[in-house]
Amino acid sequence: MEIKELLKELTEAPGISGYEMDAGQIAMKHLKQYSDEVEIDKLGSVIALKRGDQTGEKRHSIMLAAHLDEIGLMVTKIEDGGFLRITSVGGIDVTILPGQAVTVLGKEAIKGVIGAKPPHLQEPGESGRIIQMEDLYIDTGRKKEELEDIVNVGTLVRIESEFTELSNGCVSSMAMDDRAGVAVLVETLRRLKERKHDWDVYAIATSQEEVSGLGARTTAFRLQPDIAIAIDVTFGDGPGISERKAYPLGKGPAIGLGPNFHPKITQRFRDLAGEYEIPHQIEADPYPGGTDAYSLQVSRAGIPTGLISIPLRNMHSTVETLKLDDIKRCAELLSIFIARLDSKFQEELKCL
Amino acid sequence: MLIEKLSNAFGVSGNEKEIRQIIKDEVTPLVDEVTTDSMGNLFALKKGGDNSLKVMLSAHIDEVGLFIDQVENNGFVRFKKIGGIDDRVLLSKKVYIGENKTPGVIGLKPVHLGGGRGVVVSDDMFIDIGASAKDDKLAKVGDTAVFATKFVQSGDILRGKAFDDRAGCAVLIELLKNTYPFTIVGVFTVQEELGLRGATIAAYNVNPGYAFTLEGTTAGDTPMKRDVSPSTNMGAGPAITVMDRSFISDRRLVKLLEDTAKRENIPYQFKRTITGGTDSGAIHLSRGGVPSVTVSVPVRYIHSPVGLMNINDLNNTISLVSKALQRIPKIKDMS
Questions:
Q1: pLDDT digits (tens, 9 = 90+) for A150-190
Q2: What ipTM describes this predicted complex?
Q3: What is the H or E stretch that residue B265 is in?
Q4: Could you tell me if A310 and A234 are in contact, meaning their C-beta atoms sit under 8 angstroms apart?
Q5: Are residues A184 and A320 in the same domain?
Q6: Are residues A122 and A201 in the same domain?
Q7: Deepest of A8, A120, A283, B206, by most Cβ within 10 A of its Cβ?
């Protein structure tokens, strides 16, 4: 399957933090094709295992973690007129919400909109003020009595956004953060079919990264990998974004550099990208956090951890935009990295 | 479904080609003559019994949208708004640009990098089409862009873009299926959102005895900070305008509509705000003056990427105007 179709299928399935089931089924379906075992664990993470060729008594493994969950909304109250009050699950920017089409994931899925008062009915000065979450509401056009059988406090709401192909190999959708990473998992395993590798590979679509990093934390504890690599998205370039903080689309995956990452893993990625002429960028960040790498690094007695990120414009919006080439390059770099893992490299990781 | 086709069609003010062609195909089999004028208004003439009386029914085919006024060297597209759009509904929305319908997204600064802390004005926004350089085939200055919103129906509730005024267009097309005891001219007007421009020349051209403007108007029965009388209520029937920013309805036509609604048991309401203008504002001033009225389907969230409408309101508006038109000849007897 083409990366584009894979990504479309992955992003179209809802998977709001804590409720990743639908997206998890899609991830499982694709991971299954290229792995020996796959399961969904009790906390919602999808774990695929592809065994390596190693024959020794102690098996070595690498864990790849890309988070499955996405940000969304949750119903907090059904108003008398049938309007639904909402709160956010994960870091939502309220300024993207007015005028958005949404699907309320009740007992049946109901179409709605986040109402935006037309200019005709606004008071002077109103358009200069942000509409805060507590003033926003979802309108399904249905009465309270009709809704009460289908929706309750706690019902999740997915912001609708059709997967859209832009020009120049770019695509845009909701939940690219981090289904792009999940696509990298699938594509990396696919490439490993063609490439001999000794180590076992756990490709994990982790739950609840956007809220607590739960999935990465618990799966790393259970599987105790020798190395862990988080695959996430980072800030793409665009008008109004400082070049110091942005990683241009199409210039390859960004390799994490900083205290959160084992310097020898970072260096190995750089060396291999150079050797195989894979376009790449360096994302230097002194502060740990924001990805699954945060909890992976300090799992049990510590796991040497790395991070590779796909540059993404408009993060945490309905129009998260990336370039497909960056996903392919990311998977290529990871598959080479995995194929070259050996005991010598593991020895090197023992000290900084 | 007719309203689905009309809602999904492209037609930002000044660039109504696609929607006009769709409507032309719909009405051609229904009427005696179809013509257009220099601005792009579409006229559908249907003869009836008394050829000395001509009634004009109008609905505007244009919709609010964006106008491309700059394409940067790095491929990002800048725009101005066409029609009254609140800047706050634009971020993170998808659009289609120009004749090739190039998909684009209105981008933003992520909340992690300081976005979301104030209202971004549309002059500072950009559309990302994925391009890394200027390419006229994808987007060029002068192109218009529409919201990439697809129509969906869920029970009685319709969700889509441009119900202002594709709702009126749907009503008008349905009305043209009937015959009336006089000549009727259905006018699908252009550039209403830019100041009733199309209707101004159309009314002069038609020179009608009476005029009905069919609209999709603001429904204000949504949560408000202050307790204000809603403009109209969705689901409560067609809204008759007594007065708005652009005109005062002819009192006999208002009475005709109200009497008809009562006689026929059709739910109706009066529009309770005087904001907004409609084509009647231009039509009633045409030549020596034209008695005019506006009847609207209530629509929540007009001038935004996605609105809601109740299908019963649409059908009741068709019935009400249709029945009222049959009684037009009696208007002479009214004081």
A1: 999 999 999 999 999 999 999 999 999 999 999 999 999 99
A2: 0.88
A3: none
A4: yes
A5: yes
A6: no
A7: B206
Angle CA(B139)–CA(A12)–CA(B19) in degrees, nearest 5? 40
**Domain endpoint, select from A159, A188, A209:** A159
* Token pair listed for B166: 């594709």
Residue B270 structure tokens = 């009066």
Structure tokens at A8: 């479309």
DSSP conformational letter for B285: T
- What the block records as the tokens of A259 is 């205290």
Yes or no, beta carbons of B301 and A170 under 8 Å apart = no
Best of A77, A133, A166, A283 to mutate (most B CBs within 10 Å, chain B): A166
What are the tokens at B62? 């244009």
CB-based contact, B105 to chain A, within 8 Å: yes
Does A186 fall in a domain? yes
Residues A337 and A316 in one domain: yes
B18 is annotated as an active-site residue? no
**Can you read off the two tokens belonging to residue A180?**
């792009």
Answer whether A319 sits within 8 Å of B152, measured CB to CB.
no
Q: Where a domain ends, among A135, A159, A183?
A: A159
Q: What fold does the segment set B65-147 form as a domain?
A: Elongation Factor Tu (Ef-tu); domain 3 (2.40.30)
Q: Select which of B16, B26, B192, B193 is catalytic.
A: B192
In this structure, the answer to whether residues A203 and A313 fall within a common structural domain is yes
Q: Do the beta carbons of residue A48 and residue A189 sit within 8 Å?
A: yes
Report residue B227's pLDDT band, with 50, 70 and 90 as the boundaries. low
CA nearest to B164, candidates B230, B88, B239, B114: B239
Mean pLDDT of A229-248: 93
Residue among B208, B246, B235 nearest B317 (CA): B235
Instruction: Give the residue numbers spanning the domain of A240.
Output: 3-70+174-348
| B212/B214 Cα distance (integer angstroms) | 6
Cα A148 to Cα A106, B77, B95, B309: the distances in Å are 10, 44, 34, 21
Going by C-alpha positions, the residue among B325, B301, B318 that lies closest to residue B2 is B318
In a domain, A168, yes or no: no
At B204, list the tokens.
């002069």
Say if B219 is an interface residue toward chain A (CB within 8 Å): no
Q: Which CATH architecture has domain B2-63+161-333?
A: 3-Layer(aba) Sandwich (3.40)
**Residue with token string 């045409």:** B286
CATH number for the domain spanning A94: value is 2.40.30.40
Task: Provide, as residue numbers in chain A, all residues whose Cβ is less than 8 Å from the Cβ of B88.
Answer: 95, 98-99, 116, 127, 130-131
3-class DSSP state for residue A299?
coil
Is residue A166 domain-resident?
A: no
Q: Tell me the percentage of chain A whose pLDDT exceeds 90.
A: 88
List chain B domain ranges. Answer: 2-63+161-333, 65-147
Q: Which residues contact A41 (CB under 8 A, 6 or more apart)?
A: A47, A218, A219, A222
Q: Do A130 and B118 touch (CB under 8 A)?
A: yes
Best of B128, B138, B147, B310 to disrupt the A interface by mutation (most A CBs within 10 Å)? Answer: B128
A71-130 tens-digit pLDDT: 999 999 999 989 999 999 998 999 999 999 999 999 999 999 998 888 888 888 888 899
Is the Cβ–Cβ distance between B306 and B328 less than 8 Å? no
- pLDDT(B127) > 90: yes
Give the C-alpha separation, A48 to A181, whole Å: 14
- As given in the structure block, the two tokens for residue B84 are 């009254």
- The Cα angle at residue A93 between residues A88 and A94, in degrees rounded to 5: 75
**Extended strands (E) in A207-326:** 227-235, 254-257, 281-284, 305-312, 320-323
A76 and A14 belong to one structural domain? no
For residue A35, the SS3 value is coil
**B256: pLDDT strictly greater than 90:** yes
